[in-house]
Specification:
This protein is mainly beta. Strands 1, 2, 3, 4, 5, 6 and 7 form a 7-stranded mixed beta sheet that branches. A hairpin with a 4-residue loop joins strand 3 and strand 4. The chain is elongated and about 45 Å long. It starts with 5 loop residues before the first helix and ends with a strand.
Length: 143
C-alpha cells in the first residue's frame, strides 16, 4: 500500500514534471512510450468532460482506467488538480503484473479556478517518476 506521506510528493512530482517539461499533457489518450512496457489509459470518465463545472459545486468523479503492468506491482492513481497545479482530490489502487481495469473515485468541491485537470499516472513499484500518464480536463466557470 502507498503511505500517506507519499501522496503529497506524488502530487508535487506530477505537477513538477509537467511544469518542467514546458509542454501540456494532451487531454485525450496519450501515445507516450511507457517504460518497461507498462501502460495506463482512461477508458471512461463521469461526469463527461463536456460538462462545465462551476466554482463551489460538489462533484463526484468516477474514472475507469485500463492498465498493463509488466513488473510485479505498482499503483494506478487518480490525481485531480486545479489550474495552479494545487491538489484537489486523489484516489489510488494497488495493481499487480498483467492487464486489468480499475475504477477510481474522488469527491470534491470545485475551487475558484479556470480548469480542473484529471490525471491517471501508473507508478511502477521502486520507481520515483513515471511517463505513463493519461489525462482529461474540465472547464470551470465562476459561480
Amino acid at each position: 500500500m502507498m503511505s500517506a506521506k507519499f501522496l503529497p510528493s506524488l502530487f508535487a512530482s506530477v505537477a513538477a514534471s509537467f511544469l518542467l517539461s514546458g509542454c501540456q499533457l494532451p487531454m485525450q489518450t496519450t501515445d507516450m512510450p511507457a517504460p518497461f512496457g507498462s501502460v495506463a489509459q482512461i477508458t471512461a470518465i463521469s461526469p463527461d468532460t463536456t460538462q462545465v463545472f462551476r466554482a463551489g459545486e460538489q462533484v463526484r468523479l468516477k474514472v475507469d482506467v485500463s492498465h498493463v503492468l509488466t513488473t510485479e506491482s505498482g499503483t494506478v492513481t487518480l490525481v485531480v488538480l486545479a489550474a495552479d497545479n494545487s491538489g484537489i482530490a486523489h484516489d489510488f489502487k494497488a495493481i499487480t503484473k498483467g492487464s486489468g481495469k480499475s475504477t477510481l473515485n474522488a469527491q470534491f468541491t470545485v475551487p475558484r479556478t479556470t480548469v480542473i485537470r484529471v490525471y491517471t499516472p501508473l507508478i511502477v513499484q521502486g520507481e520515483k517518476s513515471t511517463s505513463v500518464v493519461d489525462g482529461r480536463a474540465f472547464e470551470v466557470l465562476p459561480n
